Amino acid sequence: MYRAAAMCAAAPGGGGRAARRLGAARAGGRVPSAAPRYSRRTRRVPIAYEAEPRPESPGPTWEPENWRQQLERIREMRRHRDAPVDEMGVDKCYDTSAPPQVMRYQVLLSLMLSSQTKDQVTSAAMLRLRQRGLTVDSILQMDDATLGQIIYPVGFWRNKVKYIKQTTAILKQNYGGDIPSTVEELVKLPGVGPKMAHLAMNIAWNSVSGIAVDTHVHRITNRLKWVKKETRYPEETRVALEDWLPRDLWREINWLLVGFGQQTCLPVNPRCKECLNQDICPAAKRF
Question: Which residues are known to be catalytic?
Answer without folding.
Answer: 195
